[in-house]
Amino acid sequence: DLMTQTAKEYAAALFSLAREKRQEAEFSDALKTVSEIFRCEPEYMQILDCRALNASLRSSLVEKALGSLPEYVVSFVGLLCEKGHISEFFDCAEEYGRMYKHFLSVSEVEVISAVPLTESEKSALISKLEKTSGKKVSAHYSVDASLLGGIIVKSEDTVIDGSLRSKLGKVKEVIEK
């Protein structure tokens, strides 16, 4: 893999900022737009790579050309210019794309159980969740004794409540009817 460590580090930094801002898709689209601009206007990239031009002039050129895009992506391109790494932009964009694709295929879940789960219970749960979701599952575990027994699994879009407390609650509703 010929991609440099620099490109990987820059892409990882941008992606972690995107996650923080919950703008993974927006940053991805913006990087595609910048890639298109640089592909259509290769001399533009050469100008930005020209060390004879002072850094602030190059930064203002970036601002002018890309100003309509998310500010963090514009700053990112500016930083690459400033550090003399603009020639690695395509590698950075490609690496970001790879990280974004991986992010989309991983489902983050929160597992709350009445008692800590054993390693075998964890792996059985993960494989069941992966089978039903068709995605790779990354889980965070916590314990809440008030559940009495069973577990609750929360993902971005669903909550599976298999706790004893909620089952008892349902039984109680039936009895009271």
Notable characteristics:
alpha+beta
Approximate shape: elongated
Rg calc:
24 Å
> Which whole number gives the mean pLDDT?
89
What is the chain-wise order of helices and strands? HHHHHHEHEEEH
Tell me how many strands there are. 4
| Strand percent estimate | 15-25%
Low-confidence stretches: none
Counting DSSP H or I runs of 4 or more residues, the number of helices is 8
Tell me the structural class: alpha+beta
The end-to-end span amounts to 66 Å
Task: Please describe what this structure looks like.
- By secondary structure, the chain is α+β, with helices and mostly antiparallel strands.
- Helices cover 62% and strands 15% of the residues.
- The chain has eight helices and four strands; from the N terminus they run H-H-H-H-H-H-E-H-E-E-E-H.
- The chain has helices at residues 5-21, 24-40, 42-49, 55-66, 71-82, 89-104, 119-133, 164-176; strands at 106-113, 136-143, 150-155, 159-163.
- The chain has a four-stranded mixed beta sheet with strand order 2-1-3-4.
- Helix 2 packs across helix 3.
- The longest helix has 17 residues, at 5-21.
- It is elongated and about 80 Å long.
Summarize the structure.
This protein is of the alpha+beta class and about 180 residues long.
